[in-house]
Amino acid sequence: MARNPISIEVLETLDAIDRRGSFAKAAEELNKATSAISYAVQKLEEQLDIALFQRMGRRSVLTPAGRLILAEGRDILQTTRRLADKAKEVATGWEPRISIGLESLHSFPDFFNVINEFLQAFPTIEIDISECVLNGGWEALEQSRVDLLVGSPGPVPSQKGYRSVAIGRVELVPVIAAKHALASHASAKKQNIESVMRQLRRVVIHDTSFNGILRSEGLSSDGQMFYVQNMDQKIQAILAGIGIGNLPKHRIQGYLDKGVLLPLDIKQQDNAESFLAWKISNKGKGLRALTETLIIK
Question: Which residues form the HTH lysR-type domain (predicted)?
């Protein structure tokens, strides 16, 4: 059987070139000579009899065939990293990396202060954080894309083997920008607001779930939607006057105090309980130490 020319090393090389935009910058990241990077790519192209990169100005851009190899290759790289991490965890009981899904509604300053305290005590553990929205966090935990969820809204999925701890509620405030053309009407008393609400665009963060049922929390879905990827984008979109939406009070208190954002006098559901959650089967000592730190705080 012919030897497979696509090795882990060459996948790492392709990944670095794509991320950094040039062979020279990839060589710098990988601590190799640029000529060695060029040779590795050229050799793979010869063995596969295809072109992997094309020049566009000063950048090296993947061809369609190159993009296919890199897309599949990144899955392989992620799998091999997880394998190495698991092997180390089995040998020592301490995982080298903890992946955390951080709900977009959660208080970032409080969270990162706790993370800093944890890293002071355990400096060799790497932390990998991704932002989650609604069901996306629970899906990421189920698929083992994250080891720990912080601030995900309930209810906690049943019969999934999760350990969860309630960590309070995030106060959400429906708001409109003072600069919005309908702000004076929308922020008026309830008897005048119902007809205005139908004219207002809702700013909504995409649920980060890929396969599950998507959720939407807060304001009704009447009227047009404007979708964004994260909480920072949602805040800025509402500040710009694009539409209205629920925002965590701890993130916008300054705007409320200055009158830049105005609260809407509308009734909505009570804010959902937030949870810290992880799989019971995860026995990592680092995860246990981190969850204990987060629960205490």
Answer: 6-63
Residues 185 and 237 in one domain: yes
Token pair belonging to 81: 């990293």
Query: Which runs of E-coded beta strand occur in the chain?
Result: 53-56, 59-62, 97-103, 126-132, 148-153, 162-169, 172-177, 202-205, 225-228, 245-248, 261-263, 273-279
Is 123 among the domain residues? yes
Q: Which residues contact 96 (CB under 8 A, 6 or more apart)?
A: 85, 88, 89, 124, 125, 126
Task: Please answer whether residues 147 and 98 qualify as being in contact, where contact means their C-beta atoms are separated by less than 8 angstroms.
Answer: yes
Query: At 192, which CATH number?
Result: 3.40.190.290
What's phi and psi for 263, nearest 5 deg?
-75, 145
Number of Cα atoms under 13 Å in the Cβ half of residue 128? 11
Domain contains 2: no
Q: Which of 54, 87, 30, 56 is nearest to 10 (CA)?
A: 30
Residue 3 lies in a domain: no
Q: Give the global pTM.
A: 0.67
1 within a domain of the structure (yes/no): no
Can you list the alpha helix ranges (DSSP code H) found in 163-273? 183-186, 190-197, 231-239, 249-258
Per-residue pLDDT of 32-59, as tens digits, reads 999 999 999 999 999 999 999 887 777 7
Question: What would the pLDDT profile of 194-244 be if each residue is shown by its tens digit?
Answer: 667 778 899 999 887 766 544 455 555 566 889 998 899 999 999 999 999
Range of the domain at 194: 172-263
